[in-house]
Design brief:
single chain; 123 residues; alpha/beta; 3 helices; globular
Length: 123
């Protein structure tokens, strides 16, 4: 990463399509990460995020993520997720479940030594 790279152990996450209340609850859960030295911070842009948590029920959000080819980096919340999603969970939102998904993705990617999507999109 370049000069704007986050500090070691800090992972950027874009939250897409959520209400202010939902966003606040998800952001608050980031302080509860169980991985040593794994911390999460929110960014606005998809291209500035290592991971994405997306409201799959919000109009246009899934299309935007698929168009950016980021579904392999995304935890989707809602009725369904697109092919190749990193993870998916239904509502109601469980912020701790989302955090566990991020922690698992960080652990796996760090073990693999790569930042490729965990589940590449299907052809």
């Amino acid at each position: 990463m370049g000069a704007n790279a986050p500090p070691q152990g800090q992972h950027t996450v874009a939250l897409k399509g959520f209400s202010r209340f939902e966003r606040s609850a998800i952001e608050s859960s980031f302080r509860l990460s169980t991985l040593p030295l794994a911390r999460y911070c929110c960014v606005e842009a998809l291209d500035g995020a290592r991971f994405v948590i997306a409201d799959a029920d919000h109009p246009g959000v899934v299309d935007d993520i698929v168009a950016a080819e980021r579904q392999g980096d995304t935890v989707f919340v809602g009725a369904q997720a697109p092919e190749g999603a990193m993870a998916w969970t239904m509502r109601p939102i469980d912020p701790l479940h989302l955090l566990r998904q991020l922690d698992a993705a960080v652990a796996l990617r760090d073990t693999l030594g790569t930042d490729v999507p965990l589940q590449p999109p299907h052809a």
